[in-house]
Each structure stands twice: as C-alpha cells, then as structure tokens.
C-alpha cells in the first residue's frame, strides 16, 4: 500500500480494542518529559479555494531552544504572520520558526528554533542510526488524535518494546501503534532518538524517518 494511504488512514481516528499504548506516569522514562505538542497554522486549497488549516503534530526538545518534528507537519505553513507554537504541558506555548528540513516525505524531518529556551526539562540526545538497532526494542511517543487513550491529541501516549519489521534508508517500519497527531514524535532506542514518526495505519504499523537522514543538520543547528 502506498505511503500516502497510510497517512490518510490516520484520519480514521478509531482506537483499536487492545491498545498497547500507555499514558505517562511517575514511572515513565524521563525522555517523555521532552515530547510536546506542535500547532502549525497554514493554508490548503480545497476545490480551488484557499482555506485556513491547522496541523496538530508532536515534537521533541533536543536542545534548550531546538525541537525536532516531521517535515509534513510544516508542509502547509506559509503565513509568517501566524506563529508555530510548541507546548510542553503544563508550560505555556512557545513560538517557533523553521531552521531546516528534509524537504519531502523521503526525508520527513524538520528542525525548529524556539523563541526562548525551555528550562527544567532535559533535551533528548539524537543518535545516528546503526543497523545493529534492528535488534533493539523501539519506543515511540506522541499526541495521537484518536478519541480513545489519546483524548483527541490532549494526552501524551507512548509504547515500548516495538519491533522493527522493515528497514529502508529513508524510512523504518515498526509494529508500534500511533494515530494522526503523533507525527513528529520520537522513535527512541536506549534513551536516544533514532527517528521521527512519519506515518502509520493506526492498527499495527508505524513508520519513522531514521536519524541518519538528519543527524548532520542536528549537529549544525542544535543549541
């Protein structure tokens, strides 16, 4: 099935009966504190008419003023008079602007600079993607927009012990569960970011863009 169909299927926000995701609690890993909500205002053309569009995604703090998300979350952003907002609940939203991105679904990542640093939260380190990670369990997290555990994007959910099921240079498939809204959230192995959530089928398949495609940009821009 083409990747686009997986993305469109996230619009069907019906959680599965056996949901493997978990809500964040006191026993959850510390890196989850750095995963926040990203709100991106934009425009889309529908039936030839330009309409306002609001994209809800996830993003991860990787430096005091730098966040990592997915390129497609910013695809329709063009009105610089309206701010992109990043929020780590319960903190107030912080404005952000684009630093660098992969430019398409084949490199579905983006870096943004925050208007002010986040304090009291430890950023998550980005690691290179090594083939040996194929054998390691993967965790993912994000603000899924499903009407179940994700509470329509209001609750951060995460899943651990996912397995890699396919591996290409520009995308990696796992058996994790995520819905639309989790895009831009991190894929984690051994406490470091190995990818960014890109797409999924809302059942048992989630793709992430491996960190090997954006690690150089992170080294250039993170601060």
Provide the descriptors you would attach to this structure in a database record.
2 domains, globular, Thrombin, subunit H, eight-stranded antiparallel β-sheet, mainly beta, 223 residues
Measured between the Cα atoms of the first and last residue, the distance is: 39 Å
Largest sheet: 8 strands, antiparallel
Number of helical segments with 4 or more residues: 2
Helix content: under 10%
Mean pLDDT: 87
Number of strands: 14
Description:
- This protein is mainly beta.
- It has 2 domains: 3-29 and 125-212, Trypsin-like serine proteases (Thrombin, subunit H); 35-114, Beta Barrel (Thrombin, subunit H).
- The chain is 6% helix and 39% strand.
- It has 2 helices and 14 strands, in the order αββββββββββββββα.
- It has helices spanning 3-9, 215-221; strands spanning 22-23, 35-46, 49-63, 66-69, 84-87, 94-101, 110-114, 138-142, 157-162, 164-167, 172-174, 186-189, 192-200, 206-210.
- The strands form 2 sheets. Strands 1-9-8-12-13-14-11-10 form an 8-stranded antiparallel sheet. It has a 6-stranded antiparallel barrel with strand order 2-3-4-7-6-5.
Can you lay out the helices and strands and say which pair or pack?
Blueprint: H1 3-9, E1 22-23, E2 35-46, E3 49-63, E4 66-69, E5 84-87, E6 94-101, E7 110-114, E8 138-142, E9 157-162, E10 164-167, E11 172-174, E12 186-189, E13 192-200, E14 206-210, H2 215-221
Antiparallel strand pairs: 1-9, 2-3, 2-5, 3-4, 4-7, 5-6, 6-7, 8-9, 8-12, 10-11, 11-14, 12-13, 13-14
């Amino acid at each position: 099935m083409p990747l686009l169909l997986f993305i469109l299927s996230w619009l069907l926000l019906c959680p599965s009966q056996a949901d493997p995701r978990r809500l964040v609690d006191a026993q959850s890993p510390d890196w989850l504190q750095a995963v926040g909500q990203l709100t991106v205002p934009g425009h889309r053309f529908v039936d030839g008419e330009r309409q306002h569009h609001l994209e809800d995604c996830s993003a991860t703090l990787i430096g005091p003023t730098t966040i990592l998300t997915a390129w497609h979350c910013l695809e329709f952003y063009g009105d610089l008079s309206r701010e992109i907002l990043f929020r780590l609940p319960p903190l107030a939203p912080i404005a952000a602007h684009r630093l660098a991105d992969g430019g398409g679904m084949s490199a579905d990542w983006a870096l943004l600079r925050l208007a002010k640093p986040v304090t009291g939260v430890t950023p998550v380190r980005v690691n290179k993607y090594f083939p040996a990670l194929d054998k390691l369990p993967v965790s993912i997290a994000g603000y899924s927009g499903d009407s179940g555990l994700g509470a329509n994007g209001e609750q951060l959910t995460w899943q651990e012990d996912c397995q890699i099921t396919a591996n290409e240079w520009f995308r990696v498939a796992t058996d994790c569960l995520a819905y639309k809204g989790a895009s831009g959230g991190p894929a984690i192995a051994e406490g470091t970011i190995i990818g960014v959530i890109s797409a999924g089928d809302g059942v048992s398949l989630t793709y992430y863009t491996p960190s090997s495609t954006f690690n150089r940009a992170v080294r250039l821009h993170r601060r």
